[in-house]
């Protein structure tokens, strides 16, 4: 899988990472974690491919396996021992970033599968590690909106958190704020702009 990673042949990276992971305890936790991380990277590269985006769909089987592999990656990561050369703080910081990556991968795969409860769980796991991630808060809101029935109050709250997140740029905040206002107007069918603006202002104040 490492050789195919160099060649950017991502389907083959996934194929051979899976072969290594299938060895179970014959491969140590570190080797399995590294293979699963490479697999997650390969999956995200496939999803980001313009050809995939153009078709408007990604193979559901690929997404399902990516979701399961991300969960396996988190489990393997927990079994990895701290290298003697690293401090506890440095190891914890590195582990946190990897946990965010695996959970983000699982969330994206779940969204493709329209497994919105699964996506919500993974997005929440990311936000537990990085509360100021505006993009994840926004995607969490979209997942709530896409549920059957839509969980609009949770969606409004999550999107408001995206507007007020410290990690949001001014342009992102303004764009998402405008989108949130439209959602509230559509939901309440409000005829009074002043009332809508007051509710939006209160929501954003609470979210921050």
Task: Provide a descriptive summary of the structure in words.
The termini are far apart. The protein is 78% helix and 0% strand. It is mostly helical. The radius of gyration is 20 Å and the shape is elongated. The chain has helices at residues 2-6, 10-21, 29-48, 50-55, 60-79, 88-112, 116-129, 134-146, 152-164, 170-188, 193-207.
The major pleated sheet works out as: none
Look at the helices and sheets and give the structural class: mainly alpha
How many DSSP helices? 11
The average pLDDT is 93
Helix-strand sequence = HHHHHHHHHHH
Q: What's the helical proportion of residues?
A: over 70%
Number of strands: 0
Distance between termini?
44 Å
Summarize the entry for a quick read.
With 208 residues, this protein is mostly helical. The chain is 78% helix and 0% strand. α7 packs antiparallel against α8 and α8 packs antiparallel against α9.
Keywords summarizing the entry:
mainly alpha; 11 helices; 208 residues
Itemize the secondary structure elements and their pairings:
Elements: H1 2-6, H2 10-21, H3 29-48, H4 50-55, H5 60-79, H6 88-112, H7 116-129, H8 134-146, H9 152-164, H10 170-188, H11 193-207
Helix pairs in contact: 2-3, 3-5, 3-6, 5-6, 6-7, 7-8, 8-9, 9-10, 9-11
């Amino acid at each position: 899988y490492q050789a195919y990673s160099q060649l950017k042949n991502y389907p083959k990276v996934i194929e051979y990472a899976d072969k290594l992971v299938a060895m179970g305890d014959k491969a140590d936790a570190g080797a399995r974690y590294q293979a699963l991380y490479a697999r997650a990277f390969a999956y995200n590269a496939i999803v980001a491919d313009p050809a995939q985006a153009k078709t408007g769909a990604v193979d559901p089987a690929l997404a399902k396996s990516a979701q399961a592999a991300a969960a396996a990656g988190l489990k393997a990561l927990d079994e990895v021992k701290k290298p003697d050369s690293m401090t506890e703080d440095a190891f914890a910081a590195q582990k946190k970033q990897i946990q965010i990556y695996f959970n983000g991968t699982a969330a994206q795969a779940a969204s493709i599968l329209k497994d919105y409860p699964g996506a919500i769980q993974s997005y929440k796991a990311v936000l537990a590690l990085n509360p100021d991630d505006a993009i994840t808060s926004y995607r969490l809101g979209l997942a709530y909106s896409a549920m059957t029935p839509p969980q609009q109050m949770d969606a409004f709250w999550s999107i408001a958190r995206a507007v007020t997140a410290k990690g949001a740029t001014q342009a992102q905040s303004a764009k998402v704020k405008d989108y949130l206002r439209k959602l509230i107007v559509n939901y309440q069918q409000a005829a009074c702009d002043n009332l809508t603006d007051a509710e939006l202002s209160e929501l954003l104040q609470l979210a921050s």
